[in-house]
């Protein structure tokens, strides 16, 4: 009997210690950070780090703005310090809750900082166990990261989530941007190439706070420093060269009519081959793409094989031109944003070892051939256009 | 040995797999060739099997004796006793190292506010309890947990595959740095850790129920565990890349954090932590058990379980005091590959084997 009581006592004692975690954190004491922005203070070694935090009251209304509570769906806090981590801790002087980073989805880098170099920014992301390596990254174009994060976006509760979801969607169906995450940026910077990072800018900035954000272009970096931007067709060429093309729309000329035909590219794959020509590396970028006719403002007859073959050739030529534009832009800035180094390292490890140090210069003078094979498989719900050819 | 402490072949199989996984699943192994660690594992496997065969050979000669006891039989009590005792100390040290690895992973990944003493104390208390209960409880537990480990492995592999973060091309070029580094990380590094560590099983083999099956079962377990280990490390490299793999303190953890399936299945870190805790628990318990049984054998203590508390507390203290930081702990481990590990895992076993062969040859005419 005595023994039973003793055992029971010990067990009950145990429950006292087992009831909670040592490391427990209560939800009501956390401030959930969804986006982080980093800027450089001019003429100083310090960073201005901004944290976009979800406002549980503003966000729970279901609608972003105009909710009856009148509270903003998100709040931005900023701190200035020499390291990202100390800025983060300093922010606790302003935030009533503990910052929680496991849901941070976006990192915005200010353009001024990007020009000075982004290399030193990512160590904290690697070392921390709370931040995620699959966080999307964008460069604030022509503005600071702080002002990008402060923009209130329609249709969502937080603009950090809005940018990262936009990055995903537009990269997949319009393909003028790339959705680059931190782990692949680190892979590039550690390996010898340059990461391709999308730009984000504020449009309509005089009507704040209802201004909107827009993804614009892909940054070209040289030695980790922002060197230029690729836009429009050049940017799409870069997406093609990176083998990240999923779907896009290509406009083709239809006889006299400029951009009269829209082709929806529905599938595309890019293969890069590295070879050695007279001791120097050279590359072939091979693209195989499939598309379908999605809009024709002039009259064409898909029934005729000739017309279709001509269209296919036009599509292939256009793709080739775009990729060449991108390659030229990158070579002009000595910025291997297309992962060519990785292919060289895989296939010619010995050569790579030798030229690794001067790679940016060698890349700028490399011969890059582009070969494109295009197929137009379908024409949508109709064959012929209802307008008749006018000749 | 008493019938009550018999181990079945299935239990042996499960235990060897859990033991080989231990920390090798989560930590970077091989050291010299990061990209080819998966290949190095497969290259080191044959030697691991030969080593196991050697242990089985010695076990067949002395089926009722544990490691320290047959060392005394082979080389005589005057040399055998100190060697046996040294094995006991060595096993305690490795057990402490395992505990430290588990503790540091838990603290860096999730329990950043918790003192290491608390984490270690919670684990060592369980270890002491199991060692106190005896070998059969340990092996039965292994039989249950092998299912957990395999389920966890399948689940995380599926998640990684579905999330599409695998870049098989990151494994290429296979011979980019030449054959040298790959072989060097296989021999001696991966052969020593984890393959040659099966020497701890020399302290439980006398408890086996069916002696004949032990050889085949052990080989199968080594084959299965090395294939699974190799696969896991290949996936790690192909997910996070060679550079990040070689800089990571816990590459499997980093690899699993990149998993994101349909924006829904994310943050599977808990699976890795669970796998590590299970693996480390069995590995360190196995070491603690081996140390306890050797100390009990050397000092002729009848009730082995009396030794569970002192050995457990020593492991606990050593785990905290042996290194002031995790990098130092790692450096100590690297150093041990060229210093103490080969002595206990290669030189002494091979020496025992040779002496045994010679003695058999010369004793035959007299018998």
From TrEMBL, chain A:
Query: Does Transcription show up as a keyword for this record?
Result: no
Q: What is its main location?
A: membrane
Q: Which Pfam families match?
A: Spore_GerAC, Spore_GerAC_N
User: Which is a Gene Ontology cellular component entry for this protein?
Assistant: membrane
Under InterPro entries, the record lists: GerAC_N, Spore_GerAC-like, Spore_GerAC-like_C, Spore_GerAC_C_sf
Give the superkingdom in one word: Bacteria
Query: Where are its TM segments located?
Result: none
Provide the membrane topology annotation: Lipid-anchor
Keywords assigned by UniProt, alphabetized = Germination, Lipoprotein, Membrane, Palmitate, Signal
Question: Where in the cell?
Answer: Membrane
One annotated GO biological process: spore germination
**Domain (Spore germination GerAC-like C-terminal): residue spans on this chain:** 216-380
PROSITE patterns, alphabetized: PROKAR_LIPOPROTEIN
Domain named Spore germination protein N-terminal: residues: 23-201
**Family stated for the protein in its record:** Belongs to the GerABKC lipoprotein family.
PANTHER family from the UniProt entry: SPORE GERMINATION PROTEIN B3 (PTHR35789)
What is the protein name stated in its UniProt record? Answer: Spore germination protein KC
UniProtKB/TrEMBL annotation, chain B:
Q: Name one GO cellular component term.
A: membrane
Q: Which family does it belong to?
A: Belongs to the amino acid-polyamine-organocation (APC) superfamily. Spore germination protein (SGP) (TC 2.A.3.9) family.
What residue stretch is flagged as signal peptide? Answer: none
Name a Pfam family for this protein.
Answer: Spore_permease
Instruction: List where the protein spans the membrane.
Output: 12-31, 37-58, 70-93, 113-132, 144-166, 186-205, 217-235, 270-295, 307-327, 339-358
- State the membrane topology: Multi-pass membrane protein
The protein in question is named Spore germination protein KB
What keywords does the record list, in alphabetical order?
Germination, Membrane, Transmembrane, Transmembrane helix, Transport
Q: Which GO terms describe its biological process?
A: spore germination
The answer on whether this UniProt entry bears the keyword Calcium reads no
Where does this polypeptide localize? Membrane
């Amino acid at each position: 009997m005595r023994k039973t009581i003793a055992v029971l006592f010990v067990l009950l004692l145990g429950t006292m210690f087992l009831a909670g975690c040592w490391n427990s954190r209560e939800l009501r004491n956390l401030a959930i950070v969804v986006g982080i922005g980093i800027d450089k203070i001019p003429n100083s070694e310090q960073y201005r780090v901004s944290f976009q935090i979800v406002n549980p009251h503003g966000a729970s209304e279901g609608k972003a703005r105009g909710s009856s509570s009148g509270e903003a769906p998100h709040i931005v806090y900023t701190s200035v310090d020499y390291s990202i981590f100390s800025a983060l801790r300093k922010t606790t002087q302003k935030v009533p809750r503990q910052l929680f980073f496991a849901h941070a989805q976006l990192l915005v880098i200010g353009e001024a900082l990007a020009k000075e170099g982004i290399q030193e920014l990512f160590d904290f992301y690697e070392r921390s166990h709370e931040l995620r390596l699959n966080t999307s990254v964008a460069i604030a174009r022509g503005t600071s990261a702080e002002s990008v994060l402060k923009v209130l976006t329609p249709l969502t509760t937080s603009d950090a989530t809005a940018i990262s979801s936009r990055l995903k969607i537009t990269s997949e169906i319009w393909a003028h941007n790339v959705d680059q995450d931190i782990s692949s940026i680190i892979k590039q910077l550690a390996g010898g190439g340059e990461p391709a990072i999308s730009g984000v800018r504020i449009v309509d900035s005089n009507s704040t706070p209802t201004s909107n954000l827009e993804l614009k272009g892909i940054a070209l970096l040289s030695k980790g420093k922002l060197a230029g931007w690729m836009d429009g067709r050049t940017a799409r060429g870069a997406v093609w060269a990176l083998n990240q093309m999923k779907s896009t729309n290509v406009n083709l000329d239809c006889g006299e009519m400029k951009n009269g035909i829209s082709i929806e590219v529905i599938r595309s794959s890019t293969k890069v081959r590295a070879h050695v020509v007279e001791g120097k590396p050279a590359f072939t970028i091979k693209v195989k793409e499939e598309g379908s006719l999605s809009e024709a403002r002039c009259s064409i007859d898909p029934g005729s094989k000739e017309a279709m073959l001509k269209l296919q050739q036009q599509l292939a030529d256009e793709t080739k031109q775009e990729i060449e534009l991108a390659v030229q832009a990158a070579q002009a800035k000595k910025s291997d944003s297309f992962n060519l180094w990785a292919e060289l390292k895989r296939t010619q490890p010995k050569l790579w070892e030798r030229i690794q140090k001067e790679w940016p210069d060698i890349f700028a003078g490399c011969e890059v051939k582009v070969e494109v094979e295009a197929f137009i498989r379908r024409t949508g719900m109709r064959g012929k256009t209802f307008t008749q050819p006018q000749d | 040995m008493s019938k009550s402490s018999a181990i079945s072949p299935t239990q042996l199989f499960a235990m060897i797999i859990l033991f080989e996984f231990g920390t090798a699943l989560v930590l970077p192994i091989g050291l010299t060739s990061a990209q080819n660690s998966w290949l190095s594992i497969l290259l080191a496997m044959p030697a691991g099997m030969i080593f196991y065969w050697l242990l089985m050979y010695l076990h067949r000669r002395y089926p009722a004796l544990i490691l320290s006891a047959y060392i005394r039989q082979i080389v005589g009590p005057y040399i055998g006793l100190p060697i046996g005792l040294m094995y006991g100390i060595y096993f305690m040290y490795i057990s402490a190292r395992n505990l430290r690895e588990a503790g540091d992973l838990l603290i860096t990944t999730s329990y950043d506010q918790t003192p290491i003493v608390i984490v270690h104390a919670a684990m060592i208390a369980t270890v002491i309890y199991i060692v106190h209960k005896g070998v059969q409880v340990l092996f039965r537990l292994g039989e249950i947990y092998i299912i957990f480990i395999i389920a966890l492995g399948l689940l995380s592999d599926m998640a990684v595959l579905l999330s599409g973060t695998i870049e098989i091309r990151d494994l290429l070029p296979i011979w980019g740095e030449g054959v040298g580094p790959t072989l060097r990380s296989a021999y001696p590094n991966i052969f020593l850790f984890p393959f040659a560590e099966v020497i701890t099983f020399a302290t439980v083999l006398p408890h086996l129920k069916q002696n004949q099956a032990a050889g085949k079962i052990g080989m199968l377990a080594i084959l299965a565990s090395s294939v699974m280990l190799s696969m896991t490390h290949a996936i790690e490299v192909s997910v996070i890349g060679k550079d990040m793999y070689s800089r990571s303190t816990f590459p499997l953890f980093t690899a699993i954090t990149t998993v994101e399936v349909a924006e829904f299945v994310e943050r599977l870190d808990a699976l890795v932590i669970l796998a590590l805790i299970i693996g480390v628990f069995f590995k360190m318990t196995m070491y603690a058990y081996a140390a306890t049984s050797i100390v009990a054998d050397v000092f002729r203590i009848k009730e082995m379980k009396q030794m569970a508390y002192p050995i457990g507390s020593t492991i606990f203290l050593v785990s905290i005091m042996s290194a002031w930081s995790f990098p130092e702990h790692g450096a100590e481990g690297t150093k041990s590959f060229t210093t103490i590990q080969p002595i206990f895992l290669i030189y002494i076993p091979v020496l025992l084997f040779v002496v045994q062969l010679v003695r058999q040859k010369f004793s035959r005419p007299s018998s």
